[in-house]
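Justification of computing resources. Each target in the renewal requires a structure prediction run like the one illustrated here; the chain below, 158 residues long, is used simply to show the kind of job we budget for.
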Amino acid sequence: MAADTLITLDKAAFLAALPEGGRLMGLDVGSHTIGLALCDAGWSIASPAHTHKRSKFGKDKDALAAFIAQQSVKGLVIGLPLNMDGSESPRSQASRAFARNIAILGLPILLWDERWSTVAAERAMIAQDMSRAKRAEKIDAHAAAHILQGAIDGLTMG
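Resulting structure tokens:
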């Protein structure tokens, strides 16, 4: 991990690490896939990008680094799966471990409460009359967009 890479739950610290703003990438980290989403540099709207099928961490890191460079991403928002009472779970610890590992890329990382993100994403896709097969294929990227949208709303609206 780069010694100065920020990993935080604190919106103010994340904002301070990005004084000029820039494009953010949201990640919904699962055990088999990573959903990816992007927002514009002005932090207005998040959109699903794609779902990355996980393999060995080195390959995942290289694929994410290439996508980050291609999209000019300046910061990462990683979903932190919390229990309904706000406590952490083994999945929370896995997301924190992923954040520590991906910090090698040197981008500031905001951990964002992702409770209900998959449910919200699925409801939105059902409302769009998306087939079950398409939903299964796209759910992780849509959940990442939900996480990222919550974060950019929280960052820009206080």
